[in-house]
Backbone:
């Protein structure tokens, strides 16, 4: 009997659906015990998010200053053969509850010496967040075995509209000719193939080896056009997160003024810099192709494309 721990937090519910669908072959197997741990921040995050609350979460999320969590049901010394961490990406960082788990003594105890599979569901920029999660797993003496990524298939510019609309209103249906927000239902349905591969690997004791268990399944695909865009956004968020914190505690008047300036900056960047950056990268791709392909291959590790 192999024991697998699934840890997840989902504000909208979409990631929880993906995580449970992906691990359903493990849940149905008689020789696997799947234990599910849902992270519960205290106080809970609202959904839909109020406008100011949506913005106010940026500094602490980006700077990895996590919220409090309700006590976990599993013990830090409880034995597991594999751990699956399913997380959202907020402001280029893992969502606060997952950061809280990874930095907690219970989380570190559970990860110590164990193989870990990360599962991401986000708009499209996940590289910096995954680098953060990789570092936290390593600091806990865990081993990242595989990474599976699900993104919004509507495209970069369309999701700049559909994703905030979903977060702020709770509506993800198509609007203005744009596709529905979030991961496509076909992608969610197809996630079971990863669970079947994990089941086969566990039955063959491959989780204890250094090699990934999900190679060749298209687990992580990187759009090289977004690599430079994400790096530029990371620098901007690093500046703004620290500046906004100087304005005071969450909800304070000084902080809200800085958040308004940050919001204006985001809108201006989306309307001007993002399209210009995508166009410039397309024109310069022949000159940068070798460098971008090397970085693409790196970020797609360990499972690969």
Residues:
């Amino acid at each position: 009997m192999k024991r697998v721990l699934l840890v997840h937090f989902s504000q909208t519910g979409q990631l929880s659906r993906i995580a449970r669908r992906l691990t359903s072959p493990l849940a149905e197997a008689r020789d696997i015990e799947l234990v599910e741990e849902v992270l519960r921040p205290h106080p809970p995050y609202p959904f839909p998010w109020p406008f100011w609350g949506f913005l106010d979460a940026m500094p602490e999320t980006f700077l990895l200053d996590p919220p409090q969590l309700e006590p976990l049901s599993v013990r830090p010394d409880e034995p597991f053969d594999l751990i699956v961490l399913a997380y959202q990406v907020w402001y280029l960082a893992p969502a606060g509850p997952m950061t809280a788990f990874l930095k907690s003594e219970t989380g570190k105890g559970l990860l110590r010496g164990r193989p870990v599979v990360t599962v991401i569901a986000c708009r499209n920029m996940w590289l910096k967040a995954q680098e953060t999660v990789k570092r936290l797993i390593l600091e806990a003496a865990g081993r990242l075995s595989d990474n599976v990524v699900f993104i919004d298939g509507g495209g970069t510019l369309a999701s700049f509209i559909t994703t905030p609309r979903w977060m702020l209103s709770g509506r993800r249906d198509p609007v203005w000719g744009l596709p529905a927000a979030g991961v496509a239902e076909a992608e969610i349905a197809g996630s079971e193939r990863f669970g079947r591969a994990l089941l086969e690997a566990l039955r063959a004791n491959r989780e204890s080896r250094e090699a990934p268990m999900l190679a060749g399944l298209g687990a992580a695909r990187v759009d090289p056009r977004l690599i430079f865009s994400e790096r530029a956004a990371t620098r901007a968020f690093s500046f703004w997160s620290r500046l906004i914190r100087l304005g005071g505690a969450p909800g304070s008047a000084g902080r809200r003024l800085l958040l308004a300036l940050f919001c204006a900056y985001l809108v201006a960047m989306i309307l001007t810099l993002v399209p210009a950056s995508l166009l410039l990268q397309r024109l310069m791709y022949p000159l940068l192709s070798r460098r971008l392909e090397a970085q693409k291959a790196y970020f797609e590790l360990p499972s690969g494309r």
Notes: Residues 225-299 form one domain. Strands lie at 2-8, 32-38, 41-42, 68-69, 82-90, 93-94, 115-122, 143-151. The first helix runs from residue 14 to 22.
